[in-house]
Amino acid sequence: MTRFDPISGAIGEAQPAKRHLADLRGCFRDTGAFERALAHDNRLVYTVAAVEPAAGEGDLHYGLGVIYPGLVGDEYFLTKGHLHTWRAAAELYIGIAGEGLMLLEDEVTRENRLVPLQPNGVVYVPGHTAHRTVNTSDVPLTYLGVYPARAGHDYGAIAERNFRSVVINRNGKPHLLERN
Amino acid sequence: MTRFDPISGAIGEAQPAKRHLADLRGCFRDTGAFERALAHDNRLVYTVAAVEPAAGEGDLHYGLGVIYPGLVGDEYFLTKGHLHTWRAAAELYIGIAGEGLMLLEDEVTRENRLVPLQPNGVVYVPGHTAHRTVNTSDVPLTYLGVYPARAGHDYGAIAERNFRSVVINRNGKPHLLERN
Questions:
Q1: What is the pLDDT of residues B90-130, one digit of tens each?
Q2: Which of these, A46, A120, A168, B6, could form a disulfide with B97 (CB 3.0-4.6 Å)?
């Protein structure tokens, strides 16, 4: 059994990769707020640790993510988001602690939707769907992701055009807003 | 998000399938103890509910299992166990509540091993590996299983030759014993 720690983000022997504000340049809508936040403190935004037991056709990989609570302007702390290199690959997210949202965007139609991510809940991310996780709470959001071993991660497509919408805090509640 | 209930075994709209003692004829080693237990009460041994969001090449299915605590003779309550029809398909088990063990048996060499299954832990079941879950605690054992959509379940091979070993309670502790 591979043990994981919902607080530290460690899973088995995997060293969690750390993503700080500086790594997320271009992700947030309010670039002024981003530069001010970064000048103040290059905060840790999230960690992700992946376990890759085998790489055969029927194998699975999995990862543990922890997003810290925080805002850049009115936009919640978030992951870079990705598509799978093998576009047909789905991913299953399982809420472990804290609560947040997943932003799903169809690669082709660019239709998007928000889905809650909470403990005792599972989010199905179909193939061909860009996905980003957002912490809308004031405690760390921890989740497991499970995906086919051959899925692969494509961050480039997102880095280029970003998601069509952003998730902002409006009067204390998450709100989906079209990016200008 | 598809919510699940670790107590009732419900997940989303899926109706949990119920497996009672009478459904598990042939699984337990001590057939006398089995018949006596069954005559006394055809107890509910476990439930399993599967969610199948899509069936494409890159898709995933998942299920929630709840095994109730109990013994037949000195053998812990268990699932029938299965191989995947697509033998190369792996499965990921995630402990949700309670604790128990997974019995893994290589289809070819028939080597077997016991792996703990507990909350905040993940068990990787490689392809070509028969797997059965056993509740060694005195509360329900709840877990999620995630597998490729095209895995399929083959119960027939297990029904025919069973697992090579059994997990018995010896002085209050689980013990792996060769079946005679």
A1: 999 999 999 999 999 999 999 999 999 999 999 999 999 99
A2: B6
3-state helix, strand, coil in chain A (%, to 5): 10, 50, 40
Task: Name, in order, each residue with C-beta under 8 angstroms of B172's C-beta and a sequence gap of 6 or more.
Answer: none
CB contact under 8 A, B94 and A144: yes
What is the reported pLDDT for A90? 98
Whether B141 contacts B130, CB under 8 Å: no
Phi, then psi, of B70 in degrees rounded to 5? 165, 170
Task: Please tell me if residue A122 touches chain B, with a CB cutoff of 8 Å.
Answer: yes
Regions in chain A scoring below 70 on pLDDT: none
Report CB contact under 8 Å: B57, A92. Answer: no
Backbone Cα Rg of chain A: 16
Task: Give the type of residue at A48.
Answer: V
How far apart, in Å, do the first and last CA atoms of chain A sit?
A: 46
Q: How many residues does chain A have?
A: 180
Residue found under tokens 């006596």: B36
DSSP string computed for A105-171: EETTT--EEEEEE-BTEEEEE-TTEEEEEEE-SSS-EEEEEEEETT--EE-HHHHHH--SEEEEEET
Which domains are delineated in chain B? 17-178 (2.60.120.10)
pTM of the model as a whole:
0.97
Three-class SS state of A23: helix
DSSP per-residue string spanning B25-51: TTTSS-HHHHHHHHHH---EEEEEEEE
Q: Hey, is the C-beta of B90 within 8 angstroms of any chain A C-beta?
A: yes
Q: Does A50 touch chain B (CB under 8 A)?
A: no
